[in-house]
User: Fold WGS project CCBQ000000000 data, contig 00106 from Kluyveromyces dobzhanskii CBS 2104.
Amino acid sequence: MASNGAGGLPPIDLDRIRNDSDGSVTGMAKGLFNQVIDGNPYFAAGGGLMILGTSLAMLRKGVISTSRLAYHQLIVDLEIPSKDKSYLWFLQWMSRYPQRSSRHLSVETNFLQHNNGSVSTQMNFVPGVGNHLIRYKGAFMLIRRERSGQIANFSNGTPFETVKLTTLYRDRHLFQELLMEAKDMAVKAQTGKTVIFTSWANEWRPFGQPKAKRNLKSVILDNGLKESILEDVKDFLKNGQWYHDRGIPYRRGYLLYGPPGSGKTSFIQALAGELDYNICIMNLADPNLTDDRLNYLMNNLPERSLMLLEDIDAAFVKRSKNDEGYVNGVTFSGLLNALDGVASSEEIITFMTTNHPEKLDPAVMRPGRIDYKAYVGNATEYQIRQMFLRFYPEETELCEQFVEKAVKLDIPVSTAQLQGLFVFNKHSPENAVLMVESLRYPNHVF
Ligand SMILES: Nc1ncnc2c1ncn2[C@@H]1O[C@H](COP(=O)(O)OP(=O)(O)OP(=O)(O)O)[C@@H](O)[C@H]1O
Assistant:
């Protein structure tokens, strides 16, 4: 019998080793090892703990892998970044959705213009940053709104955000249904309205809230002019395939020219309303607009939009060179290229206005860039009559008196001037007739 000398450890029994082993060196080593393990309380306890720890670690790993697998198999996520169109639709939808549990809300205040012109304030409580739970068509969905440190909109410092929707894999089709519902809700909110877009860097952004549509009947142009332009636009919109088959860029340019206050812009707004289109206003005099950006924006209009280039003659005057000697802004040839368009299946309808068509370069006027020109002038006898009757529908007799007097003035009178006189006398057509002489003074403020 020999002791291993370690305090508390049992002695090693050499006879047992000899008896247990087959006499070989390996057999002896095995016997020794068995004895150390068998009789050693430290090894016994440590081994147990080791086995327990290993088993727990393996179990944990197993649970994690299984839950990961289950997550991937059973759960599905949808990420909507704030730069995507559906982002705002979704937040609006959530603000109206009744079956939700949200403890973090944020407010969005909008001014709404109604069809009668009045404006009211609307506050929407949209889901704030954090987690929200909703039940949609029987399925639970976890909504997580997250904000990153990156700035998405430098004009107002809006940070880049995402909304993540999580649900069971078997309910994934509900994402599509939910987003379509949100889109329909947004489209419905815009029904009867015209959205005005302006360019911001490389994208079009809505400018203010959608405006109540302007009724085409409220714009009085010379006899038949409105109908003629409307018919031309409608005909163009019907013929996409025709352009496509011939490889011609599917675009059409309209130029409305004439004195100030004759209704050019009002007509374009009313036409957009009639067609159920929105308007993209491009400011060609913007010093930050480059040829590339103009081209890109022209070819990437929001769907169902008319492009409006106002005062096109003024866009290339008063250009000053910057410190490096370069002229800022879009170049004339850049404008021509953008007007030429590309062979795309999306239509581009461009309306241009000017008070000075004589200042326009003939290169702009060529067909393909301007396909339809219309003079929108001062009020004709027809327009004076129509304007009067629009403000005072019953007063046919007074109307004739007014027309006779106005024509006798024998001076150019703009439709904006007529509107000013009628608005001032909104309750008294008689007074309007008496005040005809004031039309001699175009800058008269009533
Ligand atoms: N033909 C018209 N029919 C109805 N309203 C008109 C007409 N012309 C002008 N107005 C009224 O006058 C105002 C100015 O009109 P608008 O801005 O459309 O004129 P414009 O021809 O575009 O002027 P500018 O050339 O100065 O841009 C608007 O409030 C509009 O309602």
Remarks:
- The first strand starts at residue 75 and ends at 81.
- The mean pLDDT is 83.
